[in-house]
Fold these 4 entries.
Entry 1:
Amino acid sequence: MVAELSGRSGRSGRSGACRPGGPARLRGRGGRTGPDLPGPRSRWWRASGAVAAGALPCLAFPAPALWWLAYVALVPWMLLLRSAPTGRRAALEGWLGGAGFIVAVHHWLLPSLHVFLVPLAALLGLLWIPWALLVRELLGGAPDPGRAAVALLLVPAGWLLSELARSWQGLGGPWGLLGASQWQVPAALRLVSVGGVWLVSLLVVAVNCAVVLLVAAPGARVAAVASVAGCAVLTSVVWLWLPRPEPAGGLRVAVVQPGLVDAADGAERRFAVGERLTSDLAGTHPDLVVWGESSVGADLAARPDLARRLAELSARVGAPLLVNVDARRSDRPGIYKSSVLVGPQGPTGDRYDKMRLVPFGEYIPARSVLGWATSVGKAAGEDRMRGDGPVIMDLPGGTRIGPLVCFESAFPDMSRYLADEGAGMLVAQSSTSTFQRSWAPAQHASLAALRAAETGRPMVHATLTGVSAVYGPSGERIGRALPTSASTAAVYEVPLARGTTLFVRFGNWPGGASLAALGLYCAARGARAVRAARSAPAPSAPPARTARG
């Protein structure tokens, strides 16, 4: 997109040349002379370095949660890309680094996908090729202040392009977005309310880009310092002047986390543990009790005994129960995962069927082609069915809640829609028991902080086996999180808020602005190439040959 794979350009000083008495060298951007073409050993070292450098940002996410590392974690990868001798090499190292990033951030999927994770990472790694070419194009050689300023705008936009592409549910969804690593940083959460997690991703990559210029391009250090200062000023202005969510009362919400249960009769045993823990809440006066994903293993219409037991629990604690049914429905074909509200009289009729399913975990894309994945991992033996649309439920006190199921809490657009439609609180019911001793539970719980800050609505993240957590309207932690070792019920005083955040009002405007900037850049490059082609002298005619008799 932004650099010819051959590493050549129509600008003068870009053609290869042979030095007398020396090997051929490549001429870099802006007339720079690059290193000799690497030999086989050097190429292998560069390839290995690209994979390792791409994997490095995973340490900024939970569970390590080294959030500060995100601001320099891309620097080794970018330094490698800017020194690539050809565009073809930069594309390869961008692909390898992207694949390394996907494997590192999603390594906890190995028990489920096994070796299938590697080709999946190789496919998604292709999304970083345009970004890699941008890095080489704009940061390579000795960029002047003008090219550095363009790089500080377009390199973050190129990174966001890869995040936007892989956020499509068909490619796995928006898990591991770089901005999500800042979920516990208050200043970053304020930015999230302005432009979502996308705005934070742009800022983090811009800082990395500035560090690369400071390290490798002395002539562009003024632009780099100005960029970092600009990021700091933007964050300060948002922190000081942006209105905060207005308090609007509160709710007492109980989260029931049964913990691990034996596989034999797991659904029945899990229900019994949840029932016992909920009974212990009698006298605590909650306004809502939330169970985790797949907390009920049978359709309530087909099992009136379970519906009756839940209704009795609701009457005993004096609050409705939001349970999650993972079962074959009695009124339509297929298995659904559904949030169901149950009151003292039984199910209230409020039901939300999960819309966005986990690839391979809950359905297999193109099952006729990829169905073999069930034989090498814990892929879905039968595809779950999708719901028809979002649902907002009304609690007895008048508060409206927007339910999400598990993986759906990763999608900013879903929580934004619920908030825009009037939900006063978001609730995510989840289960990460398959990945219990990995980074997955902490990564998943951290997403609720981002969704709360984006929407200005508190969010309850209730799981079967931890980590369960509650976040306030600004993304702040409410109470203590329930770890994966806990089997308990906890009551949280959840503050409600009114008002609309800029993200809810305008959506993913950083993504739109990034696409527009990249489009303008490509158009300018194309126009320059057309002008160069038109102004090039016509090729001279070959000399005439004469025949001699």
Entry 2:
Amino acid sequence: MSFTNARMRQLLPLIAVMALLLSSGCAMVTMKQVTPTDHVMLKRGDILNSGKLSALSQESLSVIGLTASACSKDLPACRNTVATVDGLQSEQRLSTLAELWMEEALALTPKAKLGKATELPAPALDAWLETARYSYAYLFFSGRTPAQRALEDRLTQVRDYYNYAAEQTASVVFQRTRALAIEGQDFSLPMQVDRWTISTNFDQLPLTSIPKDLVSASSVSFAGLRSSYRRDGFGAELVVVMEKAALTVPVTGVDTPVELPVFSEMPAINATALLHFKGDTLEEVLATREIRLESYSPDSTNTVMLRGQEVPLAANFTAAYGVWLAQSGFASESLRTLFGRGEGIREPHIYLMQPYDPNRRIIFMLHGLGSSPEAWVNLANEIMGDPEMRRHYQVWSVYYPTNAPIALNRYTVSNAFNGTLKHFDPKGTAPATHDMVFIGHSMGGVIARLMLSNSGEVLWDDALTRFKLHGERLKRVETRLGPLLHFTPQPNVERAIFIASPHKGTDAAGNRLGRMIGKLVRLPLTILGKFGDVFLALQNPDEAGNKPKEPRITTSIDNLKASDPFIEKSSTLPLAPSLKYHSIIANRKADVPTADSDDGLVPYWSSHLDGALSEKVVISGHSVQETPEAVLEVRRILREDLHEVDGVGSVH
């Protein structure tokens, strides 16, 4: 059946009327497929992460007849409309105003350099403070508590606005506070910043000097760290960088008592900043120009009270450690030390990875040959990032000249360690200094084992015999050599973990490559100055009765040879009877039987210890302490230790 032309002419007016009706407002609803990615972006995208207003803010604008594009052309007028026009609920109004203020703040803020505080122009700071104000009002004065909105995406968005605004404000306050402190002025007084009055409270931060820098933890990432540990919550995650200032304690040297810089707390600390707006009602908060910036140590504070509500404090537990290592220069300095080039380290130095806490037990880490505290980067980060371990342990690490003889390093490291313990716990009563844990890698494991062993007369008698020490010759060396060869176990150490440690030496130190490296090793001038005459006295005459003109002082490379008399004797020394110890051993070739294996430097027969509570073999080269498998094993052992000593958790 078909229409005639006449019939079509009759229908044309009707079709025209229908088209007119459709175009004049009778809109039709259509449907389209939305991908999961688009769905998530639609829900969670906002001005901070996408550069566009969130869907919720756009909905609020639509309710009162505005659009995002129109608002962007005149933000002040748009904000005024949002603030005054009826039709929006309190939560909609406040959260939309917070995002609109952030849009302006982002536009006015100069691009920051890596990890550096930004110089903010006054209009930008004003916009950030308004962002924080409306975020704060939404979070605590809009009718529902944060706990009641815990699962809502909007809460997370506005919390991020608040945190980011607090970070920007903290940057400005830091710069002004530092300038006042340097000038000797009272920086605790409220400061006037444009039209805002900002008071500060830094009492909870363990500041040891005037900070030199403030780093935004959210603006940096770290190559070389496998994980970054943080806690979601309220506040700006920051790193306060201190001037490098080593503390000193008296240490008995081999000649006379001297003042040496033997320890320092890590010159970078984690901090979290919060902004409090004066006022007890929504109207008062929206009208005030008075703010208080509170700074907290997230290592010791988990939650804070805001407007009568307990909320989690935001925290970054990795950032300070990463900033310190990135700025330390350890990598090149440790090699300069080994080969005696330039300004390498000359005495052991103890680094506290967190501010000292008398109630958290000490884990003491000793690195290996040609290395530094960077050897522990991932292991230390994993310990500090684990909430349970962080509550019960604190990490100390020694940095020592790895070219020195092992006997000397055991002596000087012990002195530095005990001097640091005495400084913080002079009476020896704090839980921190009891049931300590030692962890040593490679030569650091050998030194750790000696610190936990009893020498008796074994090493001294061997020296008397080998160097034919008697009479006047014995008197010349006994005072200074005796303490190096006589020692008892370090008290109050409950557990030790030895990682790829050549307790019985290694053939690699005596092979052609080892001998070549050994010839390049040079000892620090401090050692040559203190022990030159001692080692000269130890040189046995040749067959003609002539002593060598230039004594060759034994280095750590010499000591690590499997045939070295010192390593042969010291490997037989008994460990403290009550000590619990474990071994982690590397095998570089999976198809080689464990008993015949090595890690490229240390053979299994040297790193194996009878009596170990556990022995974990990991397929790896010598730097096995960096592998996830070794880190997991250390964490397992430490959890076992927490269970046995502190009654915390389980061993699984």
Entry 3:
Amino acid sequence: MKEILLFTTARSVDKTVHKLGELGVVDVKEIHRPEGQVLEKRTEALNSAEKAIAILIDFNHKRKDAEQGARYIVKDPKRLVNRVLLTTKIRESCLNKLEELQRQLDFYKTWGEQTKAEDLEYLERHGIYLRLYKVDGHLAPSLAKRHTLQFFNGKEGKVPVALVTKSKNEKLELKEEHIPTIGFDEVRRRIIRKKRQLLEIGMFLKDQASKITDLKRYRLLLQDQLGTQQILKSMGDVEGQLKYLKGYLPKDTINDFKTIAEQENWGFSISEPENPEQVPVYVKNPRWIGIINPVMKFIDIVPGYKEVDVSIYFLVAFALFFAMLVGDAGYGVVFLLIVLFFRRKLPIQARSLIYVLSGSTIIWGVLSGTYFGSEHIAAIPFLKGLIIPNIASFGVDNISFMMHFSFLVGALHLTIAHAVRVVQFINSVKALSEIGWIALVWGLFLITEQLVLSRSMPEWGHWLFVVGALLVAFFSMEHKSFFKSMLVSLANLPLSLISGFSDIVSYVRLFAVGMATAAVAASFNTMILPEGVKGLGVLELIMAAVALLLGHGLNIALALMAVMVHGIRLNMLEFAGHLGVQFSGEAYKPFKLVYTDSLKQKNTRTD
């Protein structure tokens, strides 16, 4: 990334910002905090448009012709947004009023359709007071002993009670029921009118749902207007004559920027960034590596400007972790069928990623003989011949090997992290300390094998700690005082070794969770079909199929949760910690006029 400082005259500042937006490569940083009434109005307009779109999308799902899209162009999208929002407010008011009317109708159903407030007033003028309550059934007998009560037919444990008294002050310590101010017949008529009004509102909103596409284009226009206003208000000013802004742009876009700058007579300066911490991160990977981007965006992490991009390492490791944690070829086929069914609705990166993950899961499931947790399927001769006994899910005792394999995966994963740092510091003595850490990782691997699996450490194993500790102590810090650097490194080494040991042990979760997924699937099969499908009737088969669908659906959900927790954790904490990546970066977000760009693309397709 390069840092840019751009100057333009106050008279041409609007055109300058528009050109920058069309170019779409400069990540503009604020010089002044943008504020003002125009900015507030444009923010409000954008928020209103987004609310209207969300409302119409909800109603679009209720349309039988939802797939037909817009039938005509909206001439005044702002007016449509206001109408949709106003209609929604009216709808909410109708719903609230209908709820209130329904409570009044329930009152009449409880106390009688002919109940009137005038009758109570008549009794009060003659010294008789009538108060209405709903009482819990178990409290009614005790209240009847102290008061004169008239009971009515109750429901849901509540008993309607009328307190009859000649004292104006005598009351029950309960919530009193009040007679509606309008009569029963009028309440019913108003309910009918409100329902008819709600029906008309729903039909209007469903009809307007055909205009969502136009409103989305309008939203793009509002986003452009808001972004332009934010840039204008955040620019610096020189005596009202010059305007300037600061930003960043990728190296491969400098020539495009210079071409526009020369055409528009801008003054500019392009230099190396002074503060790397403030530089946005621009990650550009080949298409096959970029398929991991949906996961990176989901967990919302960006490496720092000077940190290593972990995309390729994350992709390879995540595919392996996903396969081991899910571990069932049947589930992998389910994922594959789902993505094939929804392929047109999924972005190409997400679609490609699921292809990779489902494919890796199928391969692992075939090699481990796991098909919906069924040993009978795995026993089919052809499928049985594909099983690797050491990683098989059923029929063999391979716990020791699988734990060994998990530790081995962890050691290799962490070794790759330190190997990348060796290349990163190849021109520095710190590269030797990373080589030392590789030796320590494998020493810790041997210690883990000895403590957990009771495998004897080779005679040369202790030399890994000796050589590794010396390299780390001597070369991990570049400091003017050699002895001070060594003492600091030695002081930090014990805690680092303990942390490294726990990091390797934590990879055992790959085996443990994968085994649990297979065991749960097998348990569902045994509970639902303890004796297989022989002798079951049609109805029993249908019920068993539904139960299996629910059971395996739950197991798949738990497996995917495990992937999100454990598969991502091993990449983001263990691997990234050894790689020295803190994900402290800010993503590169260039100022770009999206609506203008969409118009250009539309015109290009038309031509």
Entry 4:
Amino acid sequence: MGGFLLFTILLYNGLWFDLKRGYLWNGASDQSQWEWYSTVVAKSVLHFQNPFTTDLQNYPYGVNMAANAAMFGLNIPLAPITLTFGATLTWAIVLTAGLAGTAIGWYWVFSRHLVPNRTAAAIGAAFCGFAPPMISHGNAHPNFVVLFVLPFIALKAIQIAHNERPVRNGVVLGLLVAWQILLGEEPLAIFGLTFLVFVIAYLIPHRAELRGMLAPLAKGVGVGAVVALLIAGFPLYWQFFGPQSFHSLLHGPAGNDTAAFTRFATQSIAGWPESAADVSMNRTEENAFFGWPLIVLMVVLTIWLWRDITARAFAITMYVMAFLSLGVEITVAHQDTGVPGLWKWLGQLPLLDSLLESRLAMGCIPVVGGLLAIATHRVWTAAAERSPAVDGNQRVPLRLVWVGAVVAVLLPIAPTELVTHERPLSPPFFADGIWRQYIAPGGSLVPVPLPSTGEAEPLHWQVDAGLGYPMPEGYFVGPTSAEDRRGRYGAVPLPTSDLFAEVERTGQTADVTEADRTQALEDLRKWNADVLVVGPRQNQEALKSTVELLLRKPAEFVGGVWIWDVRALTP
């Protein structure tokens, strides 16, 4: 367990050794977004405010924090650290605890309930904690890294089914499920689907035992449901029915290409970024990059261990989840086959319609870890029973052969250190509190361009400013409109926001018309804008010139940024 923790710290050493400016580069805007969530939750705890809503982004409409990846299950208990030392330390703690804790959790369950051999359990658990998809999400998505609760949810469900203290274990199950809801609902949904497939595959040859499981399951799961709802019921209500809630988040077709399963992830030892990018959405969504050597080994283990009921159920689950992750239509090396995937029907169900189907491949991780543990235990047992060689010649140790094979298969997909770059310091305008001179109560600060999914630096500035002012638009998930409750990333941009984004994209000053000026004043009033700010950035001069043309007002250089006080224009 200590080895898992030390290895995780080494992976994140660039972050740990620069907690002031370290930034996980492959995560794009997500570190700034998550640090913002962490800081907002901590501030809510400090001031005894409702942590499930805020108007610091998307002003004046606000953001439903319960419908975003705010991870209350860790950000609330870690609030004192965030308030005292800053959100980057909390970010580092959560990511490190996530990878190491997931490996430790599976090691605990494997070593005590699956195989008696600690080496076998350690090999399986190491894969569960550090598989390529885990490292990919470890750049940006702590809700898909902090998975240490899941093995214990499975354990308690199994114990209840075997009539082991169903009420007591039901209470524990409810506590664990509630905690996981407050950590990440999408991983819980994927794991729940994986566990359901495993249970079906396992019970097919044990159908006679099912009847005896129904009563304890009804009792234990019923108790667990009550406990979970008592804790997580209000956050769930707020998520689905509170202000700025939405009913679904549609991503469009996002299944895995079959080729992705055989390739190596960007941050694997054998990784090749161009090859990975060819069949993935981005570097944080390399959900199926297990590498061809492991695929071959899994086929071999499926054949070898088929008579073992648990191993067979693991194997069936692995293939089913891999197939589900292919999405609504099977794609082979970028070629649409026209063959529908199972997700074409399952993906239409409520709640499941918001899942990113390529992530279903993460359901393969714990069952692959289980197969590795069972196979290693089999080899250790066979080696112990093996008789000495004839003629006094010692055979090559069977355990050594197996360890060599496992190393040959897993070393190419072993993770490398996560890439960390130095983040620019916030300008003094924000860090030194100069902004206070320009924002009145009820007013907002408008960064140019406005914050969005690809523009999260203003969130970092707002954190360094002590969350003292609100901003319009932003990087969050919310409804498309008051009438259209479908979810989307970020706000629906106003025309002036679109204009700024186009200038940022092209680097060319906009050809401003009178209609643009009229629209800008209308949008500034909708935002309750007090001041516009262009910070240090690419295409800064084109953005500055565009705002000057829109407002017919020269910029002032204050505290390292260009500003326009527009309070007189937005009474």
